[in-house]
Amino acid sequence: MDLNQWVDELFEVFDRDQDGVINRSEFVELIDVLLQEKGIRRCESIFHQFDKNHDNSISKDELKEMVIDLAL
């Protein structure tokens, strides 16, 4: 599975209300899964870091950037 497919699947799973973006509560769940033991303490700063357009949600492109950045 390539990165784009993985991000698409992550996005589909965590965009629970299927509105095309990941809101804060959905983001908290995503971070909890991805970071596990680091969890909520870093969630707020990570959200702000990757919400580039400051619309209080994470787009698929922003999620892709986050996954790449956190994986490296």
Automatic annotation (TrEMBL):
Protein name (record): EF hand
PROSITE patterns, alphabetized: EF_HAND_1, EF_HAND_2
Organism: Thalassotalea agarivorans (Thalassomonas agarivorans)
Domain EF-hand: 2-37, 38-72
Pfam families: EF-hand_1 (PF00036), EF-hand_5 (PF13202)
GO MF entry, a single one: calcium ion binding
